Amino acid sequence: MAAMTIAKLAKMKADGEKIASLTAYDASFAKLFAQQGVDFMLVGDSLGNVVLGESSTLPVTVNDVAYHTRAVRNGAPDAFVMADMPFMSYATPQQACQEAAKLMRAGANMVKLEGGDWLLDTIRQLVERSVPVCAHLGLLPQSVNVLGGYKVQGKEASAAENTLRQALALQEAGAQLLVLECVPSSLAKRITEALDIPTIGIGAGPDCDGQILVMHDMLGMNSDYLPKFVKDFLAEANDLAGAVDLYVKQVKEGSFPGPEHSFKG
Ligand SMILES: Nc1nc(=O)c2c([nH]1)NC[C@@H]1CN(c3ccc(C(=O)N[C@@H](CCC(=O)O)C(=O)O)cc3)CN21
Ligand SMILES: CC(C)C(=O)C(=O)O
Ligand SMILES: [Mg+2]
């Protein structure tokens, strides 16, 4: 298959074709996901939870993400690979540029950073230096100690307006994708309609331009906690390839996520 690009993801939004994405951490799964038509992969700092067994993403380092990014790249040479910038690796624009370079050298096509207004200058500097950026709003797992838990964000009208405003500012600063995590479906829909860049939802309802899940969650391997947005696709399939195929199919046809995987309000 021809290599996926940011331009093709943008065209998918324009054409109304849903984007199906999964996290990936190693070469073998990256190869399977590419074969099953996953549009892009994220080397998430969720590797802290699902690979390292930590209870949050905070202990994850840039070297950890770079190591797994290299593995994913080796397994899927033509895939579009996004890498998470871990906690406190982008505290200043200069630090962000230096640390992003390590992820790009490891094979990433784009980096993802959690946050809004405080990141605008950082995003401008990354983009000016040829590092494509995905922004991330809503529930920010790296801020769990401030948020006091993994809770739905943007429920109050003022918080929803603030999130929409920040989404527009992130796009203006040069972000080319936006992940929306754990926000009411109605807010994700408004943001998706307001933005030119694709939105990728996780717990953000069916109206985002695409969806992402942690691969272990969609294979029924998350036993510690079960967020509402998770669906076990392996339970309805015969094997790993079938589970990934079903996920891609249900995202593309718009049957996943359903109301039972989404937050109202
Ligand atoms: N395996 C795994 N999957 C993930 O999606 C994930 C990680 N790890 N690690 C980093 C963060 C943590 N995430 C989480 C964790 C828990 C909830 C959760 O339980 N949310 C409640 C919301 C309750 C409410 O506010 O109403 C839920 O019921 O879904 C959500 C996201 C998402 N990320
Ligand atoms: C859940 C996704 C969006 C993520 O950031 C991760 O896997 O780390
Ligand atoms: Mg992450």
Describe this structure in words.
The protein is an alpha/beta fold and 265 residues long. The chain has one domain: Phosphoenolpyruvate-binding domains (TIM Barrel). The chain is 41% helix and 14% strand. The chain contains eleven helices and eight strands. The protein has helices spanning 6-15, 27-35, 47-50, 62-75, 93-105, 120-128, 144-147, 157-173, 185-194, 215-218, 240-253; strands at residues 19-23, 40-43, 81-84, 110-114, 133-138, 177-181, 199-202, 210-213. An eight-stranded parallel β-barrel has the order 1-2-3-4-5-6-7-8, surrounded by eight helices. α2 links the parallel β1 and β2 (40-43). α4 runs parallel beside α5 (93-105), α5 crosses α6 and α8 (157-173) packs parallel to α9 (185-194). The chain is globular. The N and C termini lie far apart (40 Å). 50% of the residues are buried. Residues 23, 42, 44-46, 84, 179, 181, 202, 212, 214 line the site of 3-methyl-2-oxobutanoic acid.
Q: Beta-strand percentage?
A: 5-15%
**Shape by Cα distribution:** globular
Q: Helical region count?
A: 11
Query: What's the pLDDT, averaged over the residues?
Result: 97
Provide the structure class.
alpha/beta
Largest sheet: 8 strands, parallel, barrel
> In CATH, what is the class?
Alpha Beta
In this entry the ligands are: 5,10-methenyl-6,7,8-trihydrofolic acid, 3-methyl-2-oxobutanoic acid, magnesium ion
Biggest sheet strand line-up: 1-2-3-4-5-6-7-8
How much is the radius of gyration in Å?
17 Å
| Terminal CA distance | 40 Å
CATH superfamily: Phosphoenolpyruvate-binding domains
